[in-house]
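As described in the Methods, two query proteins were run sequentially through the folding procedure within a single session, without resetting any intermediate state between them. The first query and its resulting structure tokens are shown here.
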Amino acid sequence: MTELTAPKSPLTANEFADEIRQALKYTQGVTPEQAKTADVYVATATVVRRHLMDSWMKTQQDMINGDTKAVGYLSAEFLMGKQLRNALLNAGLTPQFEEAVRGLGFDPQAVVDAEYEPGLGNGGLGRLAACFIDSLASLGVPAFGYGIQYKYGIFRQEFDDEGRQIERPDYWLSNEDPWGHIDYERDQRVNFGGKVVEENGKRVWKPSWAVRAIPVDYMVPGYASGRVNTLRLWQARSYDEFDLLTFNKSEYLDAVKPQVKAEDISKVLYPEDSTEVGKELRLEQQYFFASASIHDAIRVFYPDTDKPDLTTFADKITFQLNDTHPVIGIPELMRIMIDEYGYDWDTAWEVTHKTFNYTCHTLLPEALEVWPASLIGKLLPRHLEIIERINKQFVSELEAKGASEDQIKRMLILTDDEHPVVRMAYLATYAGSNVNGVAELHSQLLKDVTLRDFSDVYPAKFKNVTNGVTPRRFIKLANPRLSELITEGLGTDKWLEDLDLLEGLAPLAQDDEFVKKFAAVKHENKVAFADFSKQRYGAELDANTMFDTMIKRLHEYKRQALKILEIIATYSDIKSGKVNVQDITPRTYIFGAKAAPGYYLAKMTIQLINNVAKVIDNDPDVNGKIKIFFPWNYNIEVAQMLIPATELDEQISQAGKEASGTSNMKFALNGALTVGTLDGANVEIRERVGADNFFLFGMTVDEVEKMYEQGYDPSKYYEADPRLKAAIDMVADGTFSNGDRNTYAPLVSDWLTKDWFMTLADFSAYHDIQADIDALYADQLEWNRKAILNVANSGYFSSDRSIKDYLDRIWHTRSLDK
């Protein structure tokens, strides 16, 4: 095969076309005349990847040879989205690509569409990780993203004829993946099981089985930085050879058992864990990528030596634990230093403590991960011993600080009850150098409520870093029309590197001509989304209605139920004649959400939304005033179409439950107004965009807590509010289930007897704010003035700013070029 030389930089369009022709010939085995669109996509990606290679290698060399500490971002999820457009933008090759591909006789957008989106995340956690590694590269900070290359990722969502969610495997690797480079020579061994024995006065782990962790590297190019970092995802393979003798006995399943067992580890993101086997697989996943990543970092930073000086490890790299999934890495680094390299406990502890930091992404106690000690002992017996010693050390430290017996019991990392569990968030909080929340309110509630005991004892550990989103993907790529208008208004495109420059748009909110241009951009985006929805889903959307959107994981605390009950109440008012349909502001309500496969009430809520949509669609009395659209399998591609088209963003979670949110930031940056509670980053968004440019409703955190303390009875809200009662009664009487009163009985029962997240208590306030929304929407000039002010004042919510906060407050490192 002829070697393809690295392309010149920068490429011209003709050079780019020549490179694509070469790649078609030597990688795809076709001529441009024979090529299909997918061939051109793979060839283009190959060219772009090769173009980035020199910068990638230089970044790695500068990181290893210099004195700049790297960042290791450990995350179970990386929801990257499609890569081609992003790589072209960050490499400065978009115009050349467009011209080159057209010159070859292909539609550039069709080439982009040929890429299959990897479903390697479940929602905000994974998308945040993707934004952060984009910003790290754009700021020139050396970094590795470490995770798992799931074969199937998150499930592909479908809806059946009854509106129920069906989970299908999402085999995103079914087609060629030109971005990931598999490096078999840099694999790592990850051990499991067995026992710990005493040998020559030392504790020695004798594992019973092992898997091979094979790295798959993805380049992460920074925007206009000349730096390219690495996303290293691990595949699990077996060390055991295929048992041909057993296979030839027609015992086919037995012959492949070791391979299946190993490969299951990297097969599916978040396997269902309601069973013991499922829990075991989840813990195997977490240890698999944490162990492989730590060993890999040692290999990277201490090349060509069998005896690295690991006392300097924390000066080489700092690990950020993105939630509790990688926390098992803490006892793993202790084990590596003590068992593999012979360091004493105190030295290993000092290095481990300096190396790790922990981001907590929840306020819900049930979401703070715990593992049965028996399960850790079964899979990782040496780690359980280390955790036991960490816990003992922790208790001694607390006693020395004067903690009470009750407080110590509350704070135990390893509980002392009949069935002890390991509290992973507590382990991360004690062992790591810093703990951060992801919004000002969230960080305060972590200190005041969720991790209060730890905050009382270790107040200096607690920091805040409010989340952010990358403007490259979520404005420039997702919203090219608005991007052009912003550049026109500001007279520069430097805002992509410094989003605070958006403040320059604020005076233009008083310029009627600019406001009209902004309104035209929003309308064009609505038309584009309607066209996309027609083509992809067969949905008929009216771009002249208000696009009212709620996109987020389906969970009770996020309160999709509140939204659908308000829609039902409006529908009931129309049907009963209380409201003239002609007086209704026409709205298209758009939902995007997946529910965890085992989350019964969440899946039932999806079914209800779909069936309310069906009933309303088939009712001529509504006369096109209300439309519900629920696109299945919501993902980054859909988000990039929907967010720019949205006019009203729903952020209606119960106050005190959402850690931050990032969809709220994306919407504000793209010129949507928010209706929301004082929860998560909503608080900071409202402060920055202005209270007059945000629709606020609902109880505060203090009011919620007071109601919990006093005792909450949802049925009294049902009885007191005729609109709410009518809506729930319609659900209960079978209006949306073909007359079957049992279909939604569990949901109705939960609303009326439990309603833990107080949907019913906030219903009236949520209904009342709709009149304010309608009144403002009727004045389109004023609505769009406020939308522009949302854009102008949202620069703070760039992930570049978030990363700078991490650099200053937690990681204490810098760009390679400073």
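Immediately afterward, the second query was submitted; its sequence and tokens are:
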Amino acid sequence: MNIKNYLFLGLFLISTIVLAQEKEISGAVVGENGLPLIGVNIIIEGTTRGTQTDFDGNYSINANPGDILVYSFVGFGTEKRTVGAEEVINVQMTADNSLEEVVVVGYGTQSKRKVTDNIASISEDEINNIPIPSLQGALTGKAAGVQITQINGKVEGGVKMRIRGISSISSSQEPLYVIDGMPLINDDESVSQAPINPLISLNPNDIASIEILKDASSAAIYGARGTNGVVLITTKSGKSGKTKISMNTSMGWSEPTNTLDWLNAEQYVELFTEASANSYGAEDTWLTEEGGYFDWMANGLDWRNGEVDTDWQSLALVDGSVQDHTISISGGSEKTTFFLSGGYNRTEAIVRGNDLERYSVRTNVDHKASDRLNVGVNVGISKTHISRIGTDNSFSTPLQAIAQSPLSPAFLENGIPNNESTIYYNFLMQEYNGDWDSDIFRVLFNTYAEYYLMEELSFRSEFGYDNNNQTEEYFAGSLTESASTNGYADANAVQSDRYSLSNYFTYNTTFVEDYDLEVVLGMSFEESARKRQFVAGTGFASDDLQTVDSASEIIDGFSTRTKYNFLSYFSRATFSLFDKYLLKASLRYDGSSRFGAENRYGWFPAASAGWIISEEDFFDNSETISLLKLRGSWGVTGNAGIGNFASLGLFTGGAYNKIATLYPSQLGNPDLKWERTDQVDIGLDFGFFNNRLSGEVDYYVKKTNDLLLNQPVPGTSGFPSITRNVGSMANRGFEFVLNTKNFTSEDFKWDTSFNLSTLDNEVTDLPGGDIVSGVNIVREGETISSFYLVEYAGVDPANGDALFYKNTLLADGSRDRTTTASYNEASRVVLGSPYPDLMMGLTNTMYFHNFDLSFTFQGEWGSSLYNSGGKFQSGNARYEDNQTVDQLDRWQQPGDITDVPQARMYSTNGQQDSSRYLEESDFIRLRNLAFGYTFPFEWTQRFSVDRLRVYFTGVNLLTFTDYSGYDPESTYDNNGNFNINVGETFYSAPPAKTYTIGLNIDI
């Protein structure tokens, strides 16, 4: 009995000690964005004991030291924590980026695991992390094979987005943008040749995700307009549960990414005095003599003693500012969810007189009307005001001020801009005595109803409406360039409407257990209409009266109306066998009013297949290979980006001697048909070590046939050109994406995403022969719009003459590489491409305790830029324009070795179009950076705040390049033939380098 009593007592004491060690563990579970996660499962490993987080993400559980707590939640990676001495364990969970996530595809969604296409997906965090006014700017460097370039540093500047290269000559080269199922209007409605980004009115903070459909299999479901790729934009929606209020506010400042060195007054006098002596003799002192040209420039100031030395560049490029504010409310019940937002952005450009102000609101509501019926509506409204400046090729644009002499004062004594003694028109007069304002009012509306006829079969009907109203008012007062007419004003109003109706069935079933089938069958109809009114007048009684209504004479006026439509039928079938053998096929039948009656409709088929090799038995339980998927696709897409009536012969009404007339204005081509692109893509998706290292490799070939071309015709025909299907083109390239989870621990996480792509473009057939326009050429066997120039050979050290390579063809097919001082003796040759053949993006994201850091580097190699303004800016004093400082290294005496010819005023010596002004524009740029700190949840919850984050961001902070101009990405915004004349810069402003500080608050 005594032994039994002792044993019983010992067991009782041991159990008491064990129970005494058990304690309550509490804490909060949040996501990567710091928001609480509701319903996270927490169990003690090896047991069935567990709990869940509440609406605030909080939990509590009893556990012993040494127990392992396992945190799991749908869509997030599992986390484990070992119980120690602490009683509070807070956990931040990371989204699970495995292949089970869902991506948006045309007319539906699909598990990423079963995707057999090449689709680049950009998440909400990547888009919203950097406050910028342009949607496209948020995508730069994020997707392989996608090039995004803002034309120049103007806030409204057009943005070029090229997906896997150029696939057309005269037709549209922009992708199709689709927002919440509604194809967007993407037409530039600017009254001038300088484009306005059509998507500038969209608020990037409202976007939840963006999918870029790159290959034909993914884009062919949009058939006629998929050649240039498709960008699917999904806006944010609400989630059932606690109502969440989020606010993002930021303010910052900006400056040019680069400025150039120009001659000061002393250097200007030295150079031009020498240039005059070389041209007219040293005894001719017309520049420097009393009352001479320099005295006229100085306008009474003593330039000889340094009384005037104007830095015109500092007047044109100024410090800018940016502020961006968005507030949103989201939430809902099991039946109804909602998202409401309001945004404000004001951006003052780094180019004087240019700014943007945008107001936006959005409402997205989804409602489950019954077990079978879901309905919803998305509405976005925005108002954008832009203060505009002149095009690059106008003296009223600020940056052309750099052509002015530093001897000319910018202002007169009375404070009015000096327009009396400047070489060219003083742009400051436009700011002082003129205005150019654009207002864009845009409404995006989309509604849907989805009815489940049975569990496997649903019918969805969508109706979308896009209304884009743009008005521009321009006024130039009596002191501006319009002084001779006592002022000028015009008004331009454009209303664009697009209606879209889509109806489609979706059948989704699993049969024989391992066979999954999804079929989509439907139709869509779109109609786009455009109205424009324009009126202009001159002669104003006062500069305070600035509308056309006050003009004494109406000198111009017109109105136009146009309309076009698309009617389409489409189908898609996706089949999965054993969850590892994947097949997909689609077919679209498109009709467009733009083509001839016999060729109005076109078929656009596509097919793709995939094999998840890692699911095979021989990879079973592999600790190294997490994923290995081979996929391939083929498809045909089209392009209809031409005029609405390109197939028709047109007549236009007019007047002749005040008599109404009708005259032919366009040659018709009833045989005009679709431009078609065939594309093949072979890809491999991979993942290693539980997907800590993952990525994809792709090779593609795009061949475009029946190119739509505005082909020149003989002038004797009375017409400049006719639209025809002429020629072929091919794009080939590799794409490589690598994602790594470098460190994954409780306190430190570091992820890296790297993409690299190549591009080889070639015109493969051009029956009509070369198309030469300016310094560009379209030639069979060459890259489209290659530079076609005389090759500069430097300077003759004996006499300072500019030299050129003859490059005439010899009998053996080689070229004569001897030099000549006669420009006319040299032949033009292809000397470079305006398009890069290698592109790179590198993004790093790090979390350390409550700190976060992310940054993206972007690089491009293989392209060149031609400085069309070089003959004026760096022309060894040929014209009076101020010169870049490299002109101080000019040839001055026999034996000098230099690339700058002898300065000869008003005498041509190397200023002709040649490779002298062509430069490689390779660069690497720190595109964006964000650094933030999120305050601990246990602090902020005292104030009923779920998340409080402060951050700093930077855009275009660093640029590494050997390019000597303003910026390797800034290009001319006033090209006549925008598709052929590319790769030129002409007084084009650099982009802005922007720094912002901001605050995120979630309640």
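The mean pLDDT is 89. We note this only descriptively and draw no conclusion about the first query from it.
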